[in-house]
């Protein structure tokens, strides 16, 4: 197929070409998604209103978007850190579920003094997330087992842990739904009086900046970059590859866990069986959009959070299911990935008779 | 006790078949050098399309065909991205999962929780009524036997035909295959579409035959289990039968125990298939046994100009 056309890998990709393909891919994906929304029954004239005005320009919508961005920044950083050392963490939801369980456990069992309870919840969430990624990390780095399937399967196990608790020991007796009892006032992150925007958002932004300094300025960050470029060379150069990978991957898991904690203590105020839905794919999309750059993650997470906000209003007004957000993310990512072809390669058409 | 064992073993093939069907397709795909992580999404569209067509057209068999077609279509999208446009196979696979789950949820919304008439189990006079072996071996639905036949056919195709040899060569060393006159891209694209169709069939089986209803999220990680099983099967379809039966057995255990009123923590029991998959991936590596049967060029994009 296509024998007369040869593909040539570009030696240097100018930033203009990279930007153009990125914008092209993004634009194509968004255009396709808009067509899809119209086909699903959203009137063309209200697209701008639903996707831009209600999401970023109205006070309530913006508050909702900023709130949703907090856990998304954390899972985006989670994906970015692991990707930097070539570790495919596609079990973000698993670590997030465990973080949510750990945070809720501190709240439900009233562990520690009330003054620092909410921060104990955050610490527990960090630890639980790191713990949940430990088995895939060990199996991958010591025994060479593929981490993709391992991390993902542990997501399913994590979700079943949540269901086990919600349909059993932690079921709120005063509620018909399988949810945990509500967190007390000491077990909630402080809010600033604008929607649910509060300490969760501040925490996520702070961590993103710290992650930037860590990745870009610290020795470990530079080692991680060398490993990401070429693990074999990095090892040959005497860098502590195993230890650096382990640290980055554990941090990745911990941040996903923290995202779970932030959701429990910042927006849901209880453990539910829906709070972790769709974070794995969002995290990976955000990490990819940001090219694993921590400050880029903030921007990308904000964009994806807008999609969440738009999705919830489309659900209410047009009866579209939550799946529409997943579908649009998939389309946009596939489109971006495919568009990269045009900056990575150059087509050259062979003349007849010339091999 | 013996009754429990017989009903458990008799219900195992129903749970094993979708995993086996998907696994066979994924083996063909990976043997051609393409890692298809989109299985979960392809099963989801297959399951939804099969129920949608059965409900609107009224025939479970056309529903199954629609499921195969829907899986193949998503396979084509994924194939164009990774084979022709050389997109990253892991990320594109995840995107395919999202597209599959999203499209199934969006399009399938009107069909949720509506039961369909499925496909009857075989009733072979004499054989089906035998004690013990009758219900286990001779009273399954047709797809159980079709899946086993496909596994054997898949083995024959891969190991005993010229086309299978070419496909395997593509996965091991696409450069060498290219020089030998194999159209690498066409082979890989076809393999990806076949795996999509197989996953679509697996999904259609789940909804139309096994559950006779469609709900969002019903694939529940089975696509990922099938991907893990490919490694357990060491890229050989007949070995996948064994693997699928183990997982089917684990999957079938929970409803059986609940049916007899045993007081077991249901959600912990449901972890069994996932933990088992992790175990079969980890144990051979821990024992450092078995060598590496993975196709050498799995997951790498092929570019004729890249000299290696």
CATH class of chain B: Mainly Alpha
Radius of gyration from the alpha-carbon trace of chain A, in angstroms? 22 Å
The overall average pLDDT of chain A, rounded, is 91
Order of helices and strands of chain A: EHHHHHHEEHHHHHHHHE
In total, the number of domains of chain B comes to 1
Helix percentage range of chain B: over 70%
Order of helices and strands of chain B: HHHHHHHHHHHHH
Helix content of chain A: 55-70%
The protein's oligomeric status is heterodimer
What can be said about the biggest beta sheet of chain B? none
What is the SS-derived class of chain A? mainly alpha
Rounded to the nearest angstrom, the distance between the terminal CA atoms of chain A is 15 Å
Number of helices of chain A: 14
Task: Give the number of DSSP strands of chain A.
Answer: 4
GO molecular function (chain A): transmembrane transporter activity
Organism (chain A): Zavarzinia aquatilis
Keywords (chain A): Cell membrane, Membrane, Transmembrane, Transmembrane helix
Membrane topology (chain A): Multi-pass membrane protein
What does this molecule look like?
The complex is a heterodimer of chains A (355) and B (308). Chain A contains 14 helices and four strands. With 355 residues, chain A is mostly helical. Chain A has one domain (41-319): Orthogonal Bundle (ABC transporter involved in vitamin B12 uptake, BtuC), CATH 1.10.3470. A two-stranded antiparallel sheet of chain A has the order 1-4. Chain A has a two-stranded antiparallel sheet with strand order 2-3. In chain A, helix 1 runs antiparallel to helix 13 (323-339) and helix 2 (47-57) packs across helix 3 (59-84). The longest helix of chain A is centred in the C-terminal third of the chain and has 28 residues, at 241-268. Chain A is globular, with a radius of gyration of 22 Å. Chain B is 70% helix and 0% strand. Chain B has a single domain, classed as ABC transporter involved in vitamin B12 uptake, BtuC, CATH 1.10.3470. Chain B is globular and about 65 Å long. Chain B has helices spanning 2-31, 39-57, 60-84, 89-107, 133-138, 142-160, 162-172, 174-179, 184-211, 222-232, 237-259, 266-269, 272-286. In chain B, helix 10 packs parallel to helix 13. The mean pLDDT of chain B is 90. Chain B has 308 residues and is an all-alpha fold. At the A-B interface, strand 1, helix 5, helix 6, helix 11 and helix 13 of A face helix 3, helix 4, helix 9, helix 10 and helix 12 of B. Chain A: It is found in: Cell membrane. Chain A: This is ABC transporter permease. Chain A: Keywords: Cell membrane, Membrane, Transmembrane, Transmembrane helix. Chain A: One of its GO terms (molecular function) is transmembrane transporter activity. Chain A: Its main location: membrane.
């Amino acid at each position: 197929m296509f024998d007369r056309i040869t593909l040539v890998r570009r030696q240097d990709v100018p930033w203009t070409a990279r930007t153009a393909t990125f914008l092209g891919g993004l634009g194509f994906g968004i255009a396709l998604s808009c067509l899809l929304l119209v086909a699903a029954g959203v009137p063309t004239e209200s697209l701008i209103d639903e996707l831009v005005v209600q999401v970023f320009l109205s006070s309530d919508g913006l508050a909702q978007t900023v709130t949703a961005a907090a856990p998304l920044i954390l899972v985006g950083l989670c994906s970015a850190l692991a990707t930097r050392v070539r570790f495919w963490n596609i079990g973000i939801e698993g670590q997030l579920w465990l973080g949510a369980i750990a945070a809720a456990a501190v709240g439900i069992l009233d562990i520690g003094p009330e003054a620092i309870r909410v921060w104990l919840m955050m610490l527990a969430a960090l630890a639980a997330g790191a713990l949940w990624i430990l088995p895939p990390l060990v199996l991958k780095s010591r025994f060479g087992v593929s981490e993709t399937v391992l991390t993902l399967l542990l997501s399913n196990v994590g979700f079943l842990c949540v269901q086990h608790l919600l349909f059993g020991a932690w079921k709120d007796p005063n509620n018909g739904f399988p949810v945990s009892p509500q967190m007390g006032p000491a077990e909630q992150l402080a809010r600033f009086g604008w929607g649910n925007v509060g300490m969760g958002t501040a925490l996520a932004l702070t961590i993103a900046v710290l992650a930037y300094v860590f990745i870009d300025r610290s020795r470990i960050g530079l080692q991680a970059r060398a490993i990401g470029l070429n693990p074999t060379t990095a090892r040959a150069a005497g860098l502590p590859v195993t230890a650096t990978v382990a640290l980055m991957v554990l941090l990745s898991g911990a941040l996903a866990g923290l995202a779970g904690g932030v959701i429990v203590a910042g927006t849901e105020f209880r453990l539910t069986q829906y709070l972790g839905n769709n974070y794995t794919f969002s995290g990976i999309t955000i990490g990819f959009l940001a090219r694993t750059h921590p400050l880029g993650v903030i921007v990308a997470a904000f964009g994806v959070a807008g999609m969440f906000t738009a999705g919830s209003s489309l659900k209410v007004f047009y009866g579209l299911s939550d799946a529409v957000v997943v579908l649009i993310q998939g389309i946009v990512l596939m489109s971006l990935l495919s568009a990269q072809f045009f900056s990575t390669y150059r087509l050259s058409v062979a003349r007849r008779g010339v091999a | 006790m013996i009754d429990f064992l017989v009903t458990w073993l008799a219900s195992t093939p129903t749970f094993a078949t979708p995993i086996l069907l998907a696994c066979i397709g994924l083996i063909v795909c990976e043997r051609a050098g393409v890692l298809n992580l989109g299985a979960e999404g392809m099963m989801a569209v297959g399951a939804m399309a099969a129920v949608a067509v059965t409900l609107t057209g009224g025939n479970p068999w056309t529903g199954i065909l629609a499921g195969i077609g829907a899986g193949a279509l998503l396979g084509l999208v994924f194939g164009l991205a990774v084979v022709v446009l050389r997109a990253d196979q892991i990320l594109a696979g995840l995107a395919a999962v999202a597209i599959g789950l999203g499209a199934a949820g969006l399009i399938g919304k009107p069909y949720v929780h509506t039961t369909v008439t499925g496909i009857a189990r075989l009733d072979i006079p004499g054989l089906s009524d035998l004690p013990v072996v009758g219900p286990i071996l001779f009273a399954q639905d047709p797809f159980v036997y079709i899946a086993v036949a496909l596994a054997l056919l898949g083995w024959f195709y891969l190991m005993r035909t010229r086309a299978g040899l070419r496909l395997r060569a593509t996965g091991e060393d696409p450069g060498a295959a290219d020089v030998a006159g194999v159209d690498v891209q066409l082979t890989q694209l076809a393999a990806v579409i076949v795996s999509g169709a197989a996953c679509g069939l697996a999904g259609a089986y789940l909804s139309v035959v096994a559950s006779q209803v469609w709900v969002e999220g019903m694939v529940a990680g089975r696509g990922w289990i099938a991907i893990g099983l490919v490694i357990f099967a060491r890229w050989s379809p007949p070995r996948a039968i064994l693997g699928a039966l183990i997982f089917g057995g684990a999957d079938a255990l929970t409803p059986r125990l609940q049916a007899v009123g045993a007081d077991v923590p249901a959600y912990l029991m449901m972890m069994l298939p996932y933990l088992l998959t992790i175990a079969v991936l980890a144990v051979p590596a821990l024992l450092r046994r078995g060598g590496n049967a993975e196709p050498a060029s799995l997951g790498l994009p092929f570019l004729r100009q890249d000299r290696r």
